[in-house]
Amino acid sequence: MIRGKHDKYIGIVLTAFAIILFCNSSISYKPSTLMVVFSMLIMFTIYKGGMLSGVVSGLMSIIFMNYIRSNSAINSALIHLSDYEFAINIASIICMAVLAAVMDYRYRSYYEKFMEGQTLISRAEEISEIMTSHISVEGKFIKVPQRLCYLLGYTEEELLNMYWWDVTDLDDALREEELAKEIIKGNRETYNIEKKLRKKNLDTVWVFCNVSAVRNDDGEVIHMLKYMVNITERIIMSQELKKNESRYRNLVELDPDPVVIHEGDIITFINNSGVKMLKASSKEEVIGRSLYEFVHPDYIYNMRNQVGRALINLNYGGNPFEVKLCNLEGEEIDVEIVNVGFMSENSVQVMAIIRDITERKKTEELKAIMKENERQLEEAKEYDRIKNEFFSNISHEFRTPINVILGTLQLIEIQNQKEGKKSDKYTNIMKQNCYRLLRMVNNLIDITKIDSGYYDMNMGCYDIVKIVENIALSAAQYVQGKRLLLEFDTDIEEKNICCDPDQIERIMHNLISNAIKFTKPGGRISIYIKDKGNSVVIGVKDTGIGIPKEKQHIIFERFRQIDKSLTREHEGSGIGLSLVKSLVELHKGNISLISEPGCGSEFIIELPVDNKDVYSYKASDAENRKKIEKMNIEFSDIYF
Description:
With 640 residues, the chain is of the alpha+beta class. The chain has helices spanning 7-27, 33-49, 51-70, 83-127, 146-152, 156-160, 170-185, 232-254, 272-277, 300-312, 358-419, 425-452, 464-474, 476-481, 501-517, 576-586, 621-634; strands at residues 131-136, 141-143, 190-198, 204-215, 221-230, 259-263, 266-270, 321-326, 332-344, 347-356, 460-463, 485-490, 496-499, 524-531, 535-542, 590-596, 600-608.
């Protein structure tokens, strides 16, 4: 019976009232034994019929007692009681009834709650996968769940007449018997066991059992509680897993990616690819060692976190993460790892699937370098564009005042011619330096146009021999003025190629001008043409000072000069040969240099032949005057 903490006090009071009433009826001459009878009747009615029956019984008792007292014909001791004494007796009966009602109410409330809890427990046991059985000390089933009956194929009545070892495999029964004896002796509180149960049809099922004892206040075992869970599927899966373990191990061994299995931080397995990656001589050299011996110190913290996540989320492949490993030779290896935690018999292990990403890292680094180079290239292009715009703008700004000065000088010359005067020496110097500035401006403008891709070429099929010969003849006075010998030689009389005559003229003027500047008086300048069938070779050779071999690679670079000093003997801007190279390449040709210090230099141009319609090239007087002016501009840095 379930009792509340105040029930015993209520029982004591109720007993005291009963004793008082009994004594009152036995000793006193006034009270009647009827009060005791009525009190006991009321309590019995409440106990058997409930509160409503008790109230009815109490009212009837009071009415009957009042009737006896008021009827003189009935010889009763109640007639001799005073009203006060009678009221006291009635109050005693009422108090007895109230206390009995309270006791009954509390008893019934606790009992209902107890039964409700038992019902819920029974339902939970029926629904739950856990099967709870009550077994006597002798080993006989006292209470069995329906789920166990269904599992073994027996009825409840059949199991209640059986002992637990009747449905247990013999070997498991012997093991469990020893464990049960230890619990009964008090040597242990509980035990766990996996065992086989025999079904009615002699099939077997696997269960996991947790057994504990229910003891009385003296510590004696009343009965045993056995909690069982059906683990047949798990056992079958485990057995299948063991059967396939060899096959899976072979697959892992053949995996090209390294695979490492570790328990805690101790390596328990590594495949051949892992041995090769760590540069070990055998698996035994790695197995048994700590995993973190092979992890770079900077990555140990991250590695521990990732292993912890794998242990929490078993049988789930986490996200790949990158770390650095160190092999036995101390070499660092960039790898990508996926950790998978799994149960292995009675332990939890982690399988690390590793992929060497060293080459991928190198590729990513190269891509980053290429991206940075592309960015720098774009910046260089932007800088080059700004530079070209600057040179273009400043060149045009220079050309305007130079043309004004040249125009003024030309007016002075015309005026002198009308007056029959000779050109003034200083006027000629001014004109020559204007030409020099104009040449530099033109070179800057043309270089800018070529870089921007807006340089126009008037290509046509012309006789290259005639063009070069005319250029050589026109430069004769400048060569002779420096007391040099000019030679022209060709192995063909006529050769038509696709070219721009103006640009060929500009190329030759630049090369001849350089030859004149760097050849001392008495020297020789040779211009020659050679036919090579599909191409024509034009050479300009001098006996000048020559160019050192270590500086020959820079002469075609823009703004580069052999002598950079401000007191150098020969003037120049460092643009001429760069422009020559660009113009030759626009003709799909190439230019090269042969030179030795003190032996002179030889510039060799090779231009391809493109047979198009032949243009007859005959310059008009205006064009001749223009050519003379161009030549004066190109030779403006030659002083006599």
